[in-house]
Write a structure and sequence with these properties.
heterodimer; A: 11 strands; B: about 120 residues; six-stranded mixed sheet; 12 strands; about 0% helix
Chain lengths: ~110, ~120
């Protein structure tokens, strides 16, 4: 079945450490997205990519970085500059245009 | 800019009760509208969508009608079940072609259904 796979499901970060969250899709979608979800809040867009080797900042990009070397993959790095990284991170993909996005099951990041 | 406003939860209902979750939006032009559902510890699943005024999206007994005149997309279900307990998100995507569909989400409404 086609879908989006995020790994790991749970991740712990030490102070001053960078961590990378994986997102892979086999839906042949051109666009991919990263969101952050905090308790009781909606989703906030971190970064998105419309095509390989191209990506744009979303609403809360500071302290995060991404790459898009392959159509299927859109990893997110949470850097040590992100001072409040504890959250639930969701990856999504879609075809271009005003189409619905398909989501992975998320990665929960916590601070040790 | 675009925005989505949902009724605050939690909404607590008895099984078989009627459900309405209000959603209103602010956007230029004619956005597409979506309802997503999130079960505990999981990602979001698309529940239904509508792409133009007066369209009715429906799925699994849930319905929502795109009302341009009131800029609303309220979610309804005639008879809820315990398994419907989840968080529901209203979202919009601006009408653009050839670009990524940047969704704007509401804050979510938690629904709890009891026996």
């Amino acid at each position: 079945d086609g879908g989006i796979t995020q790994s790991p499901k749970y991740l712990f970060r030490k102070e001053g450490q960078n961590v990378t969250l994986s997102c892979e899709q086999n839906l042949n979608h051109d666009a991919m997205y990263w969101y952050r979800q905090d308790p009781g809040q909606g989703l906030r867009l971190i970064y998105y990519s419309q095509i390989v080797n191209d990506f744009q900042k979303g609403d809360i990009a500071e302290g995060y970085s991404v790459s898009r070397e392959k159509k299927e993959s859109f990893p997110l790095t949470v850097t040590s500059a992100q001072k409040n990284p504890t959250a639930f991170y969701l990856c999504a993909s879609s075809t271009v245009g005003n189409q619905p996005q398909h989501f992975g099951d998320g990665t929960r990041l916590s601070i040790l | 800019g675009n925005s989505v406003t949902q009724m605050e939860g939690p909404v607590t209902l008895s099984e078989e009760a009627f459900l309405t979750i209000n959603c209103t939006y602010t956007a230029t032009g004619y956005p597409s509208l979506f309802w997503y559902v999130q079960y505990p510890g999981e990602g979001l699943q698309l529940l239904l969508k509508a792409t133009k005024a007066d369209d009715k999206g429906s799925n699994k007994g849930f319905e929502a009608t795109y009302r341009k005149e009131t800029t609303s997309f309220h979610l309804e279900k005639g008879s809820v079940q315990v398994s419907d307990s989840a968080v529901y998100f209203c979202a919009l995507a601006p009408r653009r072609t050839g670009t990524a569909s940047k969704l704007t989400f509401g804050t979510g409404t938690r629904l709890q259904v009891t026996l």
